[in-house]
Design goal:
There is one protein chain. The chain is α+β, with helices and mostly antiparallel strands. The protein has one domain (2-113): Glutaredoxin, CATH 3.40.30. 47% of the residues lie in helices and 13% in strands. The chain contains seven helices and four strands. It has a four-stranded mixed β-sheet, with helices on one face. α2 crosses α6 (75-84). The longest helix has 12 residues, at 10-21.
Length: 116
């Protein structure tokens, strides 16, 4: 089990705080500092698709030139962008038993960890 994200992301902070407050100790991988591999991105994409993994709501995406945004049209181009700019990966990504949960939803985490 591992939580992936960027330390200064507000949504990642919420997820980490929730996990700590509920006594759940999960290793954290900051892909801004520790990087991310193409293989890992591909394995996530097999589960959820590249469209969901690209964070189109974030500041990094909004600051991209229109040509760069338009160039993201398939798995290969999405991976290229996410490897270059890891903050374009939607986060957090919770990896558990080979499956991933994208984003943070308190109710989903409560259900997942059996907490009421």
């Amino acid at each position: 089990m591992k939580l992936y994200g960027i330390s200064n992301c507000n949504t990642v902070k919420k997820a980490r705080t929730w996990l700590t407050e509920n006594g759940i100790d999960i290793p954290f991988h900051d892909f801004k500092k520790q990087g991310i591999s193409e293989e890992l991105l591909k394995s996530w994409m097999k589960q959820i698709g590249w469209e969901k993994l690209v964070n189109r709501q974030g500041t990094t995406w909004r600051q991209l030139p229109d040509e760069a945004k338009a160039a993201v049209r398939d798995e290969t181009s999405a991976i290229r962008l996410m490897l270059e700019k890891s903050s374009t990966i939607k986060r957090p990504v919770l990896e558990m038993d080979g499956k991933i949960i994208l984003g943070f939803d308190e109710a989903a985490y409560q259900s997942l960890f059996g907490i009421k």
